[in-house]
Structure formats: structure tokens, C-alpha cells
Amino acid sequence: MQLYLPIAEIPVNMFLIFGMGGAVGFLSGLFGIGGGFLLTPLLIFSGIPPAVAVATVTTQVVASSASAVMTYLRRKAIDLKLGTMLLIGGIAGSALGVLLFDLLQSLGQLDVVISLSYVTFLGAIGTLMFVESIRAIRRRKTGVAVRARRPGQHNWIHGLPLKMRFRRSKLYVSVIPILVLGAGIGFLGTVLGIGGGFMMVPALIYLLRVPTGIVIGTSLFQILFTMSAATVFHAIGTQTVDLVLALTLMIGGVIGAQFGARVGQNLRGDQLRLLLALLVLGVGLRFAIDLLIVPDDLYSIAITMGAGA
């Protein structure tokens, strides 16, 4: 069944788009990620203009995250205070991201920047997560005890000023790195159409030492509201949000997130991190291949969206 997208100005298979939303929603609930890092490339590979894909995916991230957040709230697996601090930084970062997005779009460099950014970020973060998760699995199989976070165990972040206590996560740390982390995720989410959970989750675990059981729900809480702000900014500023595409993705995403959140409770933390690392590396590799392959048409006519007649 063909579905016409008014903003993207192309027809698409409705069931294909619905399936993409459901699959990415499942991953969102499973890993505590927005899923945009996977859905945005899938839409681009399917022929959706990058500007429309990035802006519209923020709406799907909101829907799938909201569905999963409700599940984690019922289980009391969210640090609301920590999530609120991350959210404050995230909204500020989203506002700056929209300004850069609009500038790159007007210069005609948005597509290249998106591709290069995906290759760089996904390659680096995926490799780090893969190496760490493999080490954790090996330690567990050989019987070597994995060193857990202990009260009083600190790193350089714990020496920063403006400290705040987060009782749910059993933390007493500076709000500076929390606000910076939230701002960075919000900025990248707006520019690249990603929820940022694949960066947020390892950062909370390894830098702030948030307990694994609290990380996923807290990450989703921040992603939910940050991407809500990004959606509003895109709708008003860049006007590239395709509501027909967004609604189709949302329906699939909400359904998939519920199943993912249930499955995620039955997997070990190191297993979740390994699977997430493989996903991140796979998407980054796909973008790298696209950048290296010579296109069939060396020249193309670019139409700037939103330009006046």
C-alpha cells in the first residue's frame, strides 16, 4: 500500500515504514536508546531526503521513548532528579542544534555533514563499547569478579564543584558534567536525528557510575523530553517534519517499545552492551560504504527545501 508523504514529496510503502518504526521502537525499549541513530539511516537509505528524515525521526523517538518510560516508571527504575538535570542541558543543546541544522541546510552541506558525523561518532563509540563488553563477558566466563561501583570510589568528575545528591542512583556528583552531557546529546540529536541513548547509556555507566538498573529508564526519560523540544524546534524553525511519515513511525514505535522493554529486563548488562555495540558499528559501516562508493550519477540537481519561489 503506497502512502504519499507531503513534505518529503515521495510515495512510500506504508507497511515498510510501519515495520521500521516497530523494529526501532523494540530496540528503544530494549537498550534504553531513542533509536534515531538506526531509524534515520534506514529512512535515508529508503529514499527519504536527509533533512526530512532527521527532523521527522525526532517525533518517532518521542513516541517510542514515552511508551518505554511508562514501563520503567512503574518499575521505579528512573532517577527523575538526574533525568531532569540532563533534560535542562538537553533543551539548551537542542536549540543550538536547530540553528546549525538550518545553517547547513541553507549552505547545501547538510547531507555530507550527516554522513560524516554518523561514521565518526558511531565508529568510535561502537568500538569502545564492543571492546568493553567483550572484556566483561570474558571476565564473567572465567570467573573473575567484575569490579562493581563501591561507595567512595571516585574519578576526576567527582572532584568538580557544584555537587548534588541523587538518591535513586546513590550519587553525589557535580551537576556540571551532567548538564554538559545533556547539552551534547540534545545538540547531536537535533542535528543528526538521534536520541543519543547509545552515547548517554555508556556515559552514565562509565563516567558518572550510575547503576545499570537505573541507566536505561533515566536515559529514556531525558531522551523523551529533549526530543520533544527538538521536534518543536524543527517544526517551527526548519519546517521539515513530515506528519504523515511521523504518525506511521509512531504507531509502530509505540508497539515495538513495549515488547523491547519487557525483553530488556531478562538480559545481562554486558550482553545488552555487546548487542548495542554491534548495532552501532553496523550502522556506521553502512554510512562509510556509502561515502566510499562512487555513485552512478556523478552530477545531481539539488533542490533547497523551504526556499522561496
TrEMBL record:
Membrane topology is: Multi-pass membrane protein
Q: Does the keyword Cell membrane apply?
A: yes
Q: Where in the cell is it found?
A: Cell membrane; Membrane
This protein's GO cellular component annotations are: plasma membrane
Segments passing through the bilayer: 12-39, 51-73, 85-104, 110-131, 171-194, 214-236, 243-261, 273-294
Looking up Pfam families in the UniProt record yields: TauE
Keywords (A to Z) from UniProt: Cell membrane, Membrane, Transmembrane, Transmembrane helix
Q: Does the keyword Mitochondrion apply?
A: no
Q: Which family does it belong to?
A: Belongs to the 4-toluene sulfonate uptake permease (TSUP) (TC 2.A.102) family.
Can you say what this protein is called? Probable membrane transporter protein
Organism in which the protein naturally occurs: Roseibium aquae
